[in-house]
Predict the structure.
Amino acid sequence: MRRRGFTLLEVLVALGVFALSAVVLGSAYVNVLNAYDFVKRGSQRDEDLRFARAQLLVEPDRKKAEEGGNFDLPGGRQARWHAAIETTSTADLFLVTFTCELSEQGPGAPQTVTETFMLMRPTWADPTENSKLRQDARDRIADMRAKKS
């Protein structure tokens, strides 16, 4: 008469397979949680950066825009920004290099983000230089029209 049931070896193999699958699923779950945290920190950084950039965009005075500013963020974090502004050959158009340092709460090193973009700001322009640039543009347009005719 044979007994029905599992042998000790079969039970140990089944427990081993179960333990291995539990470890794999657990590590996958931890990876998903880490990815969510990373995305959350990245979106928070982007939001802080957008707010700092908005501070630059609403500043009507060029000198104040170049000096930049500091402000506190939620969670005890801070942001410091400044801009290097260069005139271009087009009236009222500026090349802006925007630098923002976002510091986390605690002893960690601040994260620095630098962006370069073109910005049209008539209030930053020097009136005499601006009128010269506009006259140069008019002259270039007149020359192009004369060549077409």
In short: The chain has a mean pLDDT of 89. The chain has one domain: 8-142. The beta strands are 69-73, 77-87, 93-103, 111-120.
